[in-house]
Amino acid sequence: MTITLHHYLVVGALLFCFGILTVATRRNAVSVLMGVELILNSANINLIAFSRYSDVGISGQVLAAFVIILAAAEAAVALAIVLNIYRNFQIVDVDQASTLRQ
To answer: Counting CB atoms within 10 angstroms of each CB, which of 25, 29, 40, 49 has the fewest?
Structure first.
């Protein structure tokens, strides 16, 4: 059995669905960030798969590297915000944090 483009796309779609489900159902800010990371990783799998199975060259892998760098920067900034909210209010619930603005 050989692994084809279809297999990679199915794995990417499953990761994307799990990420959307995590973002939609979780209240903890760290869990929401993990869902966003799943969504970005599903995009990376698709980029690498299309780069591997097409004659485009290495551009898909370069774009995936940029997405990984962007995800690392996003995680660092978001975790800093979550830690600051926790330090000031002792909560990490997304719903309660959004009501703090009012």
So the answer is: 25
